[in-house]
């Protein structure tokens, strides 16, 4: 994958044309960073490069609130969760309804 386009498709004239999977994962990740989470998840289903790029922490960290570490500590009462999970997983967990304050509140 990448610059040599080893997976390209040959047309009728024998010219190798690049395919979507030939785009470097790092370039895909830079584009995904500017998209909304539902769009990122849809594009992750296209191919391996998009799926791999959609897992990049810097993409999901830009979607998290600035105080996400504080929120995780209060809602999940776990300080090591931030260190053990990727940013995409943290984002997904924060998007789910979570009860806190002894189960009296839902956030």
UniProtKB/TrEMBL annotation:
InterPro entries: F-box-like_dom_sf, F-box_dom. SUPFAM superfamilies: F-box domain (SSF81383). It holds the Pfam family F-box. Signal peptide: none annotated. Residues 17-63 form the F-box domain. It comes from the Eukaryota. This is F-box protein PP2-A13-like isoform X4. It comes from Ziziphus jujuba (Chinese jujube).
């Amino acid at each position: 994958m990448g610059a040599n386009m080893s997976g390209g498709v040959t047309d009728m004239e024998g010219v190798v044309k690049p395919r979507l999977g030939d785009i470097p994962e790092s370039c895909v990740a830079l584009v995904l960073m500017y998209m909304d989470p539902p769009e990122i998840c849809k594009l992750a289903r296209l191919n391996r490069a998009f799926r791999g790029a959609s897992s990049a922490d810097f993409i999901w960290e830009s979607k998290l609130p600035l105080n996400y570490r504080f929120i995780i500590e209060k809602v999940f009462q776990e300080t090591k969760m931030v260190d053990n999970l990727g940013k995409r997983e943290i984002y997904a967990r924060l998007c789910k309804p979570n009860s806190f304050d002894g189960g009296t509140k839902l956030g």
